[in-house]
Amino acid sequence: MARAPRSVAGYTLHARRRGMVGWVLGVIAMAAFTVGLWPALPDPTELQQLLESVPEGVLAVFGASGDVFLSPAGYLDGRLFALIAPLVLLLFAVGAVTAATAGEEAAGRLELLLSAPVSRRRVILEKAGAVALLVVVLAVLLFTTLVVGVAAVRLDMGVAQLAAACVSLVLLTWALAALALAIAGATGRRGLSLGVTAAVAVAGYLVDSFAPLVDSLAGVRPASPFYLYRGNQPLVNGLDPLHAGTLAAATLLLVAVAAWSFDRRDIGT
After folding, report:
1. Would you give the distance in Å from CA 175 to the centre of its chain?
2. What does 64-120 look like in DSSP terms, one character per residue?
3. How confident is the model at residue 205 (pLDDT cuts 50, 70, 90)?
4. Has this prediction a pTM greater than 0.90?
């Protein structure tokens, strides 16, 4: 009989160690580049006139509003937290969690792991925990780079507001990665998991972006994960306990569904 691994989470982290280098450098470069552009922006009056000529629908696609870039919080929100940062972290997290579950199942490595005296629930929970930890690592690097960059360019932005935005970003990433985990756990199909999660993320983003312009979307906007992520404007108002709690509860529920369904499903080879 195969020996039980000391830590499934450790095995998962070890398997991701090389790929993490690129993600770490990418997140640091993304944050540094964004903050570094602030001093090069045109005069606020000229920029406002330019933005007024852009249709609101175009700005909405990028999660921005007419006053974006006119304040430090508006600049960081529109330039980084509205789209780019969620996209990067979601690509990492969803890709990692599906690779560690459905991907390893398709490759036959998961069956070898399960042949050891280790429960299925432990496998799925530790894999989820490992990916969640890596998301936190990337978010901490994002936060640290922003704090250093903001100080370097003398951008008027508080550390607490940056922390709130990064925590909210982590919660959004966890929730959508947990959705991917639940689908992968229930079906063992990586493509389906990626596709459904991408569809939910895109739909949620579009609903949140266009709800201010389309009255029929106002009623469903509160269900959008992106509304829960930044609808309260964490860079201005801090973390919203209700929004943050909803994302955290959704994550826990979806991880529980993943563990329950994975525990009862025949594993493919």
Report:
1. 8
2. --TTTTSSHHHHHIIIIITTHHHHHHHHHHHHHHHIIIIIHHHHTHHHHHHTSS--H
3. very high
4. no
